[in-house]
Amino acid sequence: MTAPDHEHRAPRAEAAPRAGELSVRDRALLALERRSHAGPGAKERAIREELGISPVRYYQLLNALIDDERALREDPVTVNRLRRVRDAKRGRR
Predict the structure, then answer these.
(1) Any residues with CB less than 8 A from the CB of 61 and at least 6 apart, and which?
(2) DSSP summary character for residue 6
(3) Cβ atoms within 10 A of the Cβ of 88, count?
(4) Alpha-carbon dihedral sign for residues 72, 65, 28, 32
(5) How far apart are the C-alpha atoms of 48 and 61, rounded to whole Å?
(6) pTM as predicted
(7) Residue 66: HSE in the Cβ half-sphere, 13 Å Cα cutoff
(8) How is 80-92 classified by DSSP, letter by letter?
(9) ∠ CA 25-76-20 to the nearest 5 degrees?
(10) Which ranges of the chain would DSSP assign to H, the alpha helix?
């Protein structure tokens, strides 16, 4: 049995995070990035459906987020993996 569709979506209007904490949107970005996505276009579809933003905006937000020390404290495995991938891409340029 699957959960109702609305349970997978990040809230559009979010309360201000407490000092030193990530916002609900930032946590949703990291959560989506932790998941594996089967098939071409699955991740982009999830970005649009669950977060309500374009994939381009998602990657802009994610790139800024992985430089945030709060994100590193929240999910060090994901953030360090994303930093390594980004650094490797920069090294090839």
Answers:
(1) 25, 26, 29, 53
(2) G
(3) 9
(4) negative
(5) 14
(6) 0.75
(7) 20
(8) HHHHHHHHHHHHH
(9) 55
(10) 24-34, 42-46, 55-65, 69-74, 76-92
* 38-91 per-position pLDDT tens digit: 988 999 999 999 999 999 999 999 999 999 999 999 999 999 999 999 999 888
Q: How far, in Å, are 35, 48, 74, 75 from residue 69 at the CA level?
A: 21, 26, 9, 10
CA angle 78, 80, 82 (to 5 degrees): 70
Tracing tokens 């929240």 back to the chain, one arrives at 74
How many Å apart are CA 47 and CA 33, to the nearest integer? 10
What is the separation, in whole angstroms, between the first and last Cα of the chain? 46
Q: Is 47 helix (H, G, I), strand (E, B) or coil?
A: helix
